[in-house]
Amino acid sequence: QLQLQESGPGLVKSSETLSLTCSVSGGSITSSSHYWGWIRQPPGKGLEWLGYIYHSGSSFYNPSFKSRISISVDTSKNQFSLRLDSVTAADTAVYYCARLDGYHRPFPLDYWGQGTLVTVSS
Amino acid sequence: QSVLTQPSSVSGAPGQRVTISCTGSSSNIGAGYDVHWYQQLPGTAPKLLIYGNNNRPSGVPDRFSGSKSGTSASLAISGLQAEDEADYYCQSYDSSLSGSVFGGGTKLTVL
Lengths: 122, 111
Prior knowledge:
The complex is a heterodimer of chains A (122) and B (111).
Chain A: E1 3-7, E2 11-13, E3 18-25, E4 34-41, E5 48-53, E6 59-61, E7 69-74, E8 79-84, E9 93-101, E10 109-112, E11 116-121
Parallel strand pairs in A: 2-11
Antiparallel strand pairs in A: 1-3, 3-8, 4-5, 4-9, 5-6, 7-8, 9-10, 9-11
Chain B: E1 9-12, E2 18-23, E3 36-40, E4 47-50, E5 64-69, E6 72-77, E7 86-94, E8 99-102, E9 106-110
Parallel strand pairs in B: 1-9
Antiparallel strand pairs in B: 2-6, 3-4, 3-7, 5-6, 7-8, 7-9
């Protein structure tokens, strides 16, 4: 059974960089049929796309974040990572990593991590 | 403000049938892009409920069904159960935004 697990600091200072890693187990991140993505959910609000990546390193970002977001992949560790620069209180959210099913368009998210709360403090 | 509009809340009694709408435009659902639906139980991660407008992943009860017409999609839940109380989100692709988008979410209350 595929499992995804987010890890990283739960508290980040305003103007600094948020960094999270998603560890994938029970399957390979080099699957040709899947992409790997990040989604966030501010407290009490809805879901928001951040971006996704293919194991080759090809990535797509939500234009709203394009200037300060980066997603990378480490196939040797079966992990992918999120970096969000210059955070503010508006970036406080539960961050989820997920697998995207590449067989369908748009890509449905068929496996999700449990999510990790990141709070941005001043 | 999402480009996919969902009612903020719906409710129904156990055993009843409820529907949740997801209204888009000519740059997303109306352009022919598929719609997916997710269920988010309180305090948990979302779960894929319907993909490709009307397909259920393995393990999802057939009480859940999806449909799409024109610029809108709908999720129907029949034989409502207490355990269905959750937030529901639609997802599609928007060509003007060049990316996937989520609806704002609908809270389902089982009376």
